[in-house]
Amino acid sequence: MASELIYRGHENENQPQATNFDLPKPSKPWLSITHFIRYILRENRLVFVLIGMAIATIFFTFLPSSSTTYPLHPYRNYESLSDSYFPSEKTQVTTRVNYNGFKANVNLGGKIPLGLKRKGLRIVVTGGAGFVGSHLVDRLMARGDSVIVVDNFFTGRKENVMHHFGNPRFELIRHDVVEPLLLEVDQIYHLACPASPVHYKFNPVKTIKTNVVGTLNMLGLAKRIGARFLLTSTSEVYGDPLQHPQVETYWGNVNPIGVRSCYDEGKRTAETLAMDYHRGADVEVRIARIFNTYGPRMCIDDGRVVSNFVAQALRKQPLTVYGDGKQTRSFQYVSDLVEGLMRLMEGEHVGPFNLGNPGEFTMLELAQVVQETIDPNAKIEFRQNTEDDPHKRKPDITKAKDLLGWKPTVPLRKGLPLMVADFRQRIFGDHQEGGSAS
């Protein structure tokens, strides 16, 4: 067979091809493409991956974009605080908030489409077991956020946040902010610092370290993780003011070597650090200057005038007025302050902002209001005034009204009874009268 095939091949070598079976096969150009693709798949996977990425890019480029606007990034500029809440229907939102017995309608503004839910943030509150901090934690938890409280319990009390124990969105860390701390959060509310004269004079070096080193540590954390940072400063940065009322552009009249300087100058330095991090490290900073605040959970014997008067009246002791009683203060209820802090954090303005009630009372007038609320027969006792005690204190809140849409809503005569109920329960253990306030 082999020789025959060879012979036939030679025999027909010069013969014309008679049938289609003897015609040469036509060229197939697609075979080269197939071979090329097989080569890529077999020998050069990187090229194949790049081609796939290019195809995916083209696909998503021409894909119609969605108009959905959630989840919101925590650092985008929102038009108002209202957008961070989640209503159950597409309508103008009004929610009812209970602040230890005081109920208020909070108009959240804005409209959120039906079925959309606000994405909860992860937030750390330093000093979150304290008076103001614990009320702020309550609001953030009610809003649906995950909250980490950092407190060394120098002035804070675990009882202030115990009602959140067991909630998977709540964490409590016993820690002093003077030492560095590593966390992953979206926002930082920095409230850690003793705020009453009795407490910050107890250890003035520790107080100024908390204000300076503690603030430095938390600003460094905000820089590393890209978190927005809110500093709670104080009206004490104005010292014994020569301008009345005080506006945010006033630089103050502070004694740098006085007994209150650890707090006053410490907060002024904290503001300096915050602005330097904002300008130099692009940290999103917010600064609030808090004026006198009162309400449930205040330390009973912290030396502040409202808590002093209330505790003394409940214990049937004379109300101690220092000096001639003509020095003035402005008192805001804690729920108003918390609302202002949250609006400031969610807004787009750095500050500083005065957060206080412009209603001005002399110490004698405050003592009379406490008498009316608790014991009309309470006596008033005058004592020598303390060093560096400011004579006048009243905030100008025009800036907060215009840029944050915030103003206090709880008058002293309405908020004070709520604080009295809480103090009565803690001093005498009267759970029936004070249970609702605590």
Automatic annotation (TrEMBL):
<comment type="similarity">
    <text>Belongs to the NAD(P)-dependent epimerase/dehydratase family. UDP-glucuronic acid decarboxylase subfamily.</text>
</comment>
<keyword id="KW-0210">Decarboxylase</keyword>
<dbReference type="InterPro" id="IPR036291">
    <property type="entry name" value="NAD(P)-bd_dom_sf"/>
</dbReference>
<dbReference type="Pfam" id="PF16363">
    <property type="entry name" value="GDP_Man_Dehyd"/>
</dbReference>
<dbReference type="InterPro" id="IPR016040">
    <property type="entry name" value="NAD(P)-bd_dom"/>
</dbReference>
<comment type="pathway">
    <text>Nucleotide-sugar biosynthesis; UDP-alpha-D-xylose biosynthesis; UDP-alpha-D-xylose from UDP-alpha-D-glucuronate: step 1/1.</text>
</comment>
<keyword id="KW-0333">Golgi apparatus</keyword>
<dbReference type="GO" id="GO:0032580">
    <property type="term" value="C:Golgi cisterna membrane"/>
</dbReference>
<feature type="domain" description="NAD(P)-binding">
    <location>
        <begin position="125"/>
        <end position="417"/>
    </location>
</feature>
<keyword id="KW-1133">Transmembrane helix</keyword>
<dbReference type="GO" id="GO:0048040">
    <property type="term" value="F:UDP-glucuronate decarboxylase activity"/>
</dbReference>
<comment type="function">
    <text>Catalyzes the NAD-dependent decarboxylation of UDP-glucuronic acid to UDP-xylose. Necessary for the biosynthesis of the core tetrasaccharide in glycosaminoglycan biosynthesis.</text>
</comment>
<dbReference type="InterPro" id="IPR044516">
    <property type="entry name" value="UXS-like"/>
</dbReference>
<keyword id="KW-0735">Signal-anchor</keyword>
<keyword id="KW-0520">NAD</keyword>
<keyword id="KW-0456">Lyase</keyword>
<dbReference type="GO" id="GO:0033320">
    <property type="term" value="P:UDP-D-xylose biosynthetic process"/>
</dbReference>
<protein>
    <recommendedName>
        <fullName>UDP-glucuronate decarboxylase</fullName>
        <ecNumber>4.1.1.35</ecNumber>
    </recommendedName>
</protein>
<keyword id="KW-0812">Transmembrane</keyword>
<dbReference type="GO" id="GO:0042732">
    <property type="term" value="P:D-xylose metabolic process"/>
</dbReference>
<keyword id="KW-0472">Membrane</keyword>
<feature type="transmembrane region" description="Helical">
    <location>
        <begin position="46"/>
        <end position="63"/>
    </location>
</feature>
<dbReference type="GO" id="GO:0070403">
    <property type="term" value="F:NAD+ binding"/>
</dbReference>
